[in-house]
Amino acid sequence: MSILCGCCPLLECVYCLGCARWAYKRCLYTAGHDSQDWGLATPHEFEPVPRFCRYILSVYEEDIRNPVWEPSEGYGINPDWLLLKKTYEDTQGRAPAYVLYLDHDHKDVVVAIRGLNLAKESDYAVLLDNKLGERKFDGGYVHNGLLKAAGWVLDEECEVLRELVVKYPSYTLTFAGHSLGSGVATMLALLVVRRPDRLGNIERKRVRCFAIAPARCMSLNLAVRYADVINSVVLQDDFLPRTATPLEDIFKSLFCLPCLLCIRCMKDTCVPEQKMLKDPRRLYAPGRMYHIVERKPCRLGRFPPVVKTAVPVDGRFEHIVLSCNATSDHAIIWIEREAQRALNLMLEKEKRMEIPEKQRMERQESLAREHNLEYRAALRRAVTLDVPHADSIESEYGTFDKTQEDETEEEEEETESITSKVGESSSASSSSVRQSYKRRRNRGVSWDELIESLFERDESGNLTFQKSDLLR
Questions:
Q1: Which of 353, 370, 399 is the last residue of a domain?
Q2: Do the domain assignments include residue 4?
Q3: Which of 21, 67, 403, 470 could hold 447 in an S-S bridge, CB 3.0 to 4.6 Å?
């Protein structure tokens, strides 16, 4: 009896210390921690974001020629170029409302999809149509309901999109969406890249996706592999890209969302991130990440927004931020406003620097090479961490462009630098990969040849990582 009496206070002390530690870590954790080691975005790569936000906002208008909710800068849409608009009555609840816009000014064919409509049961049905690990796709896992909605949209508009893609060969094809629409847009991009023959064998480099306030809709290996196509934009403390709680559970508990977020916050504090990475069914925010940071810890008010970007493997918005702005930062109106502010600041800074046109063009080419190197580093990081299915490729790996045979040793150093930024392990396996990469680079081997040397084909013809080579 005396032993039990002595143990109870001890257990209470341990429990209180654990709660205090959790509260301390959670209260000090801010959104800036997620992207503190990321690089700054450039005006050239971030320029489309506020424009696509306005395109998405235009979907909410009943008559684009007589807008009611038009932002201060307008929608930037020529009504004569709006090819079609599908409402909920047209989609019969199979997908959110969307528009097809032919943007001649920017040489772009745009499919813009609106976000969740809280008054439509069909939108909830799309979110609820999923179970953990239910739908496999291209060697990974995706959200079943979002994939079905994207498949319906593609079936409906396949003929129109094919005609436009063939008629305007120099135009890009862009899928843009917010919240629920971001998940549908992401799945559309995956379907088109996976089956380019449906749209006249469109090239991968012509397909883009901008997921605004993205839903976690694909496994980690797919999120990294499609980072050259998909771009996700997150405003500060937005809750949706951060919570790994299934979307269906979030909206079942919509009226007690703060309680759900708090419980989720306690769980992700206690579960090691390495353990979470091992679950192949776990879904993540897709593609390359753009994080708009406008508030600082322990400071009041909003500061000039800064945009950070990276292709993270671990640390991909894995922690909920306890903030009163967690839900307001999810609103498309706020995202468009802050994205435009950030872009204006970047353009003003560039204008003050008076960069000559030639150097600006060179910088854009250099940026493309840096992104290419960052994709490679992310791939190797995923393999090093033993991310499930990261070494399984069902088609020719398409995230990276072909390496030029005359690439310099300076680019090799850039690769090593970027690899260290994403936290590449110094284990024997990663060292072996780097040594193999250096040997082949020194004799001018292309990236495709490097992939062939690191991967082998199984009986079904798929590429699998040669793990045996790392044990030598």
A1: 353
A2: no
A3: 403
**Residues in a beta bridge with 112:** 99, 176
Find tokens 């696509």 and name the residue.
52
For the residues of 249-277, what is the DSSP string, one character each? HHHHTGGGHHHHHHHHHHHHHHS-HHHHH
Kindly report, residue by residue over 317-362, the tens digit of the pLDDT: 877 777 788 889 999 999 999 999 999 999 998 888 776 777 767 7
Identity at 280, one-letter amino acid code? P
Distances (CA, A) of 195 to 12, 139, 198, 207, 246: 58, 15, 6, 12, 28
pLDDT in tens, 253-298: 544 556 655 665 666 566 666 666 667 888 999 999 999 998 776 6
Residue 472's CB: how many other CB atoms inside 10 A?
6
**DSSP helix/strand/coil, 292:** strand
pTM: 0.74
Q: Name the more confident of 97 and 25.
A: 97
Q: Report the first-to-last Cα separation within the chain, whole angstroms.
A: 59
Segments of 4-77 assigned E as strands: 39-40
Does 408 have pLDDT greater than 80?
no
Number of domains comprising the chain:
2
Q: Do 313 and 450 share a structural domain? A: no
Of 253, 252, 346, the closest CA to residue 292 belongs to 346
126 plus 219 within the same structural domain: yes
Whether residues 440 and 319 fall in one domain: no
The CATH number covering residue 190 comes to 3.40.50.1820
Element (H, E) at 234: strand 230-235
CA 97 – CA 115 distance, rounded (Å): 9
Contact indicator for 101, 81 with CB cutoff of 8 Å: yes
Picking from 53, 122, 51, the residue whose alpha carbon sits closest to that of residue 86 is 122
| Cβ-Cβ contacts under 8 Å for 410 (sequence gap 6 or more) | none
What are phi and psi for residue 305, nearest 5 degrees?
Answer: -65, 145
Range of the domain at 258: 31-353
Based on the domain organization, do 161 and 55 belong to the same domain? yes
Coil, strand or helix: which one is 76?
Answer: coil
* Residue 155 and residue 297 in one domain: yes
Domain assignment of residue 8, yes or no: no
Render 313-343 in DSSP notation, one character per residue. Answer: SS-SS-S----TTTTGGG-HHHHHHHHHHHH
Model confidence at 429: pLDDT above 50: no
SS3 177: strand
In the block, residue with structure tokens 């000559």: 356
Residue 349 lies in a domain: yes
Kindly list the distances between the CA atom of residue 61 and the CA atoms of 54, 86, 95, 197, 386, in Å, as whole numbers in the listed order: 11, 12, 17, 34, 47
Q: Which of 321, 353, 385 is the last residue of a domain?
A: 353
Same domain assignment for residues 324 and 388:
no
- Alpha-carbon distance of 20 to 194, in angstroms, equals 48
